[in-house]
Amino acid sequence: MVQGLISNFSILAASIFVLVQCFRRSLITSRHNYKTKLVLGLVFGLVAIMMMFFGIHVAPTVFIDLRSLAILCAAMMGGYYSSVLVGLIISAGRIFLFGGFTDAAIASSISAVLTGIICGLIAYYVNDYRKKWVCSLLVAALLPSVVIYSLMGKASLYITPVFLFIFLSSGALIAYFIHYLDKLKSLFLKYEAEVSRDYLTGLLNYRAFDTVFNEKLQQADYEQAELSVLLLDIDFFKKINDTYGHKTGDEVLKQFAAVLTDSTRPSDFVFRIGGEEFAILLEKCSHSQALIMAEKLRLNTHQRTFHLPVAPSLHITASIGVATFPEVAGENLLEYADNALYGAKKGGRNKVVSYTG
Q1: Domain named GGDEF: which ranges (predicted)?
Q2: Which of 131, 260, 264, 336 could form a disulfide with 268 if both were Cys (CB 3.0 to 4.6 A apart)?
């Protein structure tokens, strides 16, 4: 009996581990769409069926396992609809795969559906993670125990205490396991975001630029779409640092970054790739549209007053180079944009220059 229930626990724990790795966001704290809830329900439903194959027969038509823990996991991660779906899958599996329309199968099926409904409601209405698990675990332990007693009578009194001990212990371990994995996932995502962000401006950094640029260039090539690159440089930034100090220079960088994010589309990618050097990727943006965007950025920068805490208010300018794929081959795109930026600097600064080869 114990060996079979341990097999159940191992199947469930392994499935949870794989799920956490497959999903990008937190499975506990994130709000999922209906597609994700459906996937979670189907996965835990199949996991529950696998667990039933390792069930322990305690009577000719009665066997016990930890299938109800799959319902709890679905409720904690996917909510009400995932929980109910797992209950329905268990119900169908119990009848059509394990014994047909016997009294034991029907009673177990009803118990599974009720567990799915009740645990789903608990997950929906109770916000605290521990309270959710405690309440759901008690429900999921109580209903199968009632079914076992109704089917076996006094004979179940020897089995039920062992089952309850293993079930509640396994439930507590699974709750901790999910919480621990989810916390690790959150820390990893936080670290990943910090690694790809510039500490000063909050923009994406050069490391992220290299990754995103290559990814978007491949996508544009595959879709035969346009991809424009803007390279920007703050004019005479060294003079600002030398005159007013690096703290003032940092403030200028932060405010300039705000100009860029406020002036671009939500779908655009804005990067700080060097000291006063910035880059913007414009997906599905023609060369003429990119030039319009670049001129808008140049004008917004020129017209903005940069209010600084330890220096007089400043007006700054920026030089911008523009190049667009597929007018420029992908392997030359950054080089041409950089040449255009150099041309803007050499031509007097505060300019937008397009370089097409």
Answers
A1: 225-357
A2: 264
